[in-house]
Structures are given as C-alpha cells and as structure tokens.
Amino acid sequence: MDVDPPRGEGFRSYFVQKIEELQLIVAEKNQNLRRLQAQRNELNAKVRMLREELQLLQEQGSYVGEVVKPMDKKKVLVKVHPEGKFVVDIDKNIDINDVTPNCRVALRNESYTLHKILPNKVDPLVSLMMVEKVPDSTYEMVGGLDKQIKEIKEVIELPVKHPELFDALGIAQPKGVLLYGPPGTGKTLLARAVAHHTECTFIRVSGSELVQKFIGEGSRMVRELFVMAREHAPSIIFMDEIDSIGSSRIESGSGGDSEVQRTMLELLNQLDGFEATKNIKVIMATNRIDILDPALLRPGRIDRKIEFPPPNEEARLDILKIHSRKMNLTRGINLRKIAELMPGASGAEVKGVCTEAGMLRAARAPGARYPGDFEMGVAKGDAEGLEKNMSHQEAVEVGGCCGGTADAYPLTNYTFGTKEPLFEKDPSVPARFQRMRDEFDKIGMRRSVEGVLLVHEHGLPHVLLLQLGTTFFKLPGGELSAGEDEVDGLKRLLTETLGRQDGVKQDWIVEDTIGNWWRPNFEPPQYPYIPPHITKPKEHKRLFLVQLHEKALFAVPKNYKLVAAPLFELYDNSQGYGPIISSLPQALCRFNFIYM
C-alpha cells in the first residue's frame, strides 16, 4: 500500500535546488568580478604610466649632471658634461640629505634647478667589465718576474693594504702604473695576481672597447667606468692595450681620430680627478710605449713604468717548472735543456711548449711516453728559430742514455730525385708468399740487412723511410745474396734503392750495428708458412746505422715515396709502423746526435 509524502516536502526540495543553482550563479559572477577588477587595475597602471610619460614629454628637456658636493642646505655643486661645474639651487621636493657626492641628478633646462635625483645607471657594457670572481692567479704562478713583482707591490699592493704608511710620510698614494713589453711576457697575468692578493674588485677593460662609433660614447663609458670603480672600492682598473686610445695626439681631419682623442682626454681628466684615498688603482698595459701621449705618462697619472723584457734562460726555466708542475713527466727530462732551446721566447711561448707537449702526448697511444715531446713542442712553436739555434755544433741527447755520437745534417741539405720504379716479379701477396716459401725451403735461414738513415729536422732526429702506397713503410735494404758480406750487401742494396740516377757511385758510410733479430716469425703476417712447432731461428736481420754526407744527392724509385719520421712518432705508433721500425728509438738511445 502506497504512503503519500508529508505535506510540504516537495516545496522544500524545489527551493533547495533553486538555492544551489543561484549559489553557482553568484560564484560565477564573483569570479568574473575579480577578473574584471584585475583588468581594471592593469589598465589603470597603464594609464598612470602613459600620463607620466606624457607629462615628461610636455616638460622641457633636463640636463644630466653629477653631484660634486653639497654647498649648503639649498645649493649644490654639480658637474655637467661637457659644460663644466655649476652651483645650482635645489627644488622644494628634494631632501638635501639624499643629495650625495657622485649621484646623478636632473637639472631644469631653463633655470638649472635640481629637480630630480636619478638612479646611478651604468651602461651594461661597462658593468660587464667588472670581474665578479676574484682572479685565482697568484705570484707563485708568475715565473721569472721577481723584479717586476717587487715594483708593482710597492705601487699597488702596499697603498691598498697599508695607506697609513703614506699618511705618516706625508706623500700622496700612487694612482697608476704602466706595464710595457713584448706580447706574452706576463703583464696581464701579473695584474690578475695583484688583484688576487689585494682582494680588490678587478675591472678589466680593453682599450679597443672604449673606441665607440658615436661622438661622446667613449668618454661616457670612461666616466661610468670610474663611477663603478668608486662604488666597488677598493678596486683595480686594468686597462689592456692602452695604446689604442692613448696614442700621441696629432692633427687629423678624421672624425674617428678626434673621438679617440676625446676618450683619452676624459681618461686624463678622471686620472686627475679621483682621490688617492678612494682605493682606486689603475694598471695600464701596452706593447707600444713609444706611441703613448706624454700627457698620459707624466707623474701623477702614471707614477711608475715597469718594463717586461723577454725572459732569459733562468726565467724560462722557472716558467717551465711552473707550467709543468701538474704534468706527468717522464724521468730524464732536462727542463734546463728545453729552456736553452728557446732563446728570445716569451713567457706565453714557453707555456705553449708545455701545452703542445701535452697535446702531442694525448694524441698518441695510451701509456706511450717519450722525452722528445717537449723538444717537438719547441719545434712546432718556433721551428725556424730552433733550426737557426741548432745549426751550431750543439748536441741533443735523445732518450737520456749515454753512448756514441752520430752526425745528422738538416734535411734541406739533401736533394731528392726520382728514377725508374723497382717492381717485383709479381707484386701480389700470394706470389710474394710463394717466393718466400721457396727461398725458405731452398736456403733455410734468410739473411737480410736494413739501413737506418738519420736526418735533422725541426730540432729532432728523423728516420728516412720508404713508403709504398699509403700504408707500407720500410727501411732501405733487403735480402743478401748467398755468402755476401753484410756491409757490402747493404751498400749494394742502398745504391739500388737510393743511388744517384747519373750512375755516380754513392759513398755510403755504414756505422755500428744497432739491432739483431734471430727469430723465425718476428713478423707473423709475412711468414704464415712457418709451422708453429719450429723454434730454431730461421732468419737473421741486422740493422746498421748509415751516415750521409752533407749535400748528398740520391734518387728514389718512382713507385716509392721517401718520408722522414721523427723518433717519437716511431716510438708511439708501433701498430702503424711495425715492431722493428717502432723499436728504433730504444735502439738509438745510446747515441748523442750532433747537428751540423
């Protein structure tokens, strides 16, 4: 039996549903209201900004000046560029306590009244000149410049750390120092070391960065540079390549030269203007002191000039020790000998030798180490100067071992010609193996000789190799005839391969034996026919050191190419040259090579 719901229950559910619908509508309207209010606030902000811009546009132009000092409660001494300095009144809405020296202010165009204090805005290009991190260079990283370090400490470091000494003596602190000398002698490195030890803000600027396109831009950057230095005092301004803006003034119709001169005049003005007690020191560096303007070099602006000459032998040795300190050096490397090979080299070039030696080492097989990396680094850095130096009767020890002496002449003293090619009966690999098998069965032990011909190139002994194609290298020589003497046979083989084309007899000087091999298969790919159970030596190969006369003339077969490979290259690339050729550096380490 159905029961009717209580009377009025249907009306209650209807109104509850209507209330929920109205609540959703109210929430949606409130959300729209908040969105419209946010848009209104944004538009009001834009309107205020536009009104302010309109008001500024309607105002007369203002001069921008820099406060020198307040005179009293109503007047201030202001410097305006380029007009000069003026004593101006202060507007009613400006608090005199907010007007501080060096702050930027706006002056009305018609009355020169100070009516606004401007933010100290610095050009982003100038801001980027400040080095945020203290340089990590130290005096210990500067080699061979003990005298220069002492002088720059007296001029820069001492006034910053102990200004009371100058007050007690009654003298003004030095403002600037000029570092001059050839490129790569350590000027920038020493400036960074000074900034490190004084814990000053280091501002580095190149003179070329101050040469701007528009008139007055370079002068403005110089002013802002010194303003930034005062704000971050104590600070050191290092101006590299100062000759780009500090050259002597000349009469020129070029607008670019006039702008450079304006920039230099502003620099002179700043050097005269800032006080020594502000802990601002200026270090300038140049390679051309002879073209600098005398006004820039006078005492009071540049208080000391420090020369950076090319390092001598002891200085080069110190620089080598510093830059090779973290290198994994092979025993027996004589750094003094390396320093002697670089007369006239700058500190940067000496450092480059260490870098080049490391790169030569990194480019080779892991674990391969050879003392010649430094010598080759010297040669790659200055091969021409090194050859000139090595043209005297100077011995270079290779491998650090003692032994005999071998003369080697520069490669340029030899003349290479060509002659008819030397072809085998059948150059194919199967045919060659068949001939080797027949000789092995007929003769038993093969006898062969090869000559090691040395030349001098780039300060290192090189070995002459014969290249056939692109991958096959060999020493000149070959198999001996039955019963043939080894020395006579080697001379015969050398004449056949490298003898003069005109038929003139070549005088080959065969020296000591530098290697003997008694092995059945020291080159397994060439002897696949030897059974693995054979252990008795079946072949004898002997290497001789062959000397060449100066101005030697010989020819190479057309199908061969004569190449000169440095000893360290043979040492580090055994897979490319084979075990015999790559073993030559060890076999020759008992010789001292004298370059004629």
UniProtKB/TrEMBL annotation:
Keyword Transport among record annotations: no
Occurrences of domain Nudix hydrolase (ranges): 445-570
Per the UniProt record, one Pfam family is: AAA
Give an example GO cellular component term for this record.
mRNA cleavage factor complex
Protein location: Cytoplasm; Nucleus
Q: Which SMART domains match?
A: AAA
In terms of InterPro entries, this protein maps to: 26S_Proteasome_ATPase, AAA+_ATPase, AAA_lid_3, ATPase_AAA_core, ATPase_AAA_CS, Cleav_polyA_spec_factor_su5, NA-bd_OB-fold, NUDIX_hydrolase-like_dom_sf
Q: Which residues form a coiled coil?
A: 19-60
Top-level lineage group: Eukaryota
Which keywords annotate this record? ATP-binding, Coiled coil, Cytoplasm, mRNA processing, Nucleotide-binding, Nucleus, Proteasome, RNA-binding
Single annotated GO MF: ATP binding
Q: Which Gene Ontology BP terms does the record give?
A: mRNA 3'-end processing
What family, per the record?
Answer: Belongs to the AAA ATPase family.
Q: Which PANTHER family match?
A: 26S PROTEASOME REGULATORY SUBUNIT (PTHR23073)
Q: What does this protein do?
A: The 26S proteasome is involved in the ATP-dependent degradation of ubiquitinated proteins. The regulatory (or ATPase) complex confers ATP dependency and substrate specificity to the 26S complex.
| Name listed for the protein in its UniProt record | 26S proteasome regulatory subunit 8
- The record lists the organism as Anopheles coluzzii
